[in-house]
Design brief:
alpha+beta, 4-stranded antiparallel sheet, globular, 235 residues
Length: 235
Amino acid sequence: MAEGNQALWFLDNIDVLGIFCPQKLNSAEMERHVHKRYKRGEYIYLPEEMADRVFFLTEGRVKIGSYADNGKEVTKAILGPGEVFGELSIITEGRKRHDFAQAMEDTTVCAVTVPVMRSLLRDRSALNLFMLRVMGSRVLEMEHRLESLMFKDSRTRIVEFLVNTTLTKGQRVGYEWVVRKFITHQEIANMTATSRQTVTTVLNDLRNKDLLTFDRRRLLVRDMEKLREEAAKGE
């Protein structure tokens, strides 16, 4: 698979869309596979709601996060088309959710009830492997973020986030990389446990070094190797 599409690596050889959102459904099946649209800012689920469905994102972007005791928002992940969320409901059915899922733009999802999802997992070994990879990759990502919080300064966390986001969400164009639908400075701060002001300072410094440019629509990394070197300075 080409670089820049790593976020969807676990979709190889499996028609996840066909499983989550089959084209031909009778009335009984429609109750088990819900196809729903959300406007920007709408919540798909909130903390304390019952964890009874798994969601497949077909269009748009979704933010997964939680709220600290002081009310501060902590962003855990920002997902795009082809990704699954709410997957912990498979093993925590009957319990309440601890995080929220919010549409960052007009978004379409397919929702599958936990009993149906478990049935699909029993019948489809490829889907079973897919979900194991999803859960495993999320655990590894959270471990990496925890290590960064413990051992690295705020600048390094921000630069590492830019590198990882570019490699997983971006596309290579010649010697440069472009990430479309770049997130806000506040969202980067929420992802890296820093402040919006610190994010702005770091981004402006990297732009002044001609390593990248950015606006609300995209991030353009001009020199990935030098950006990686900036991240390595904090190690």
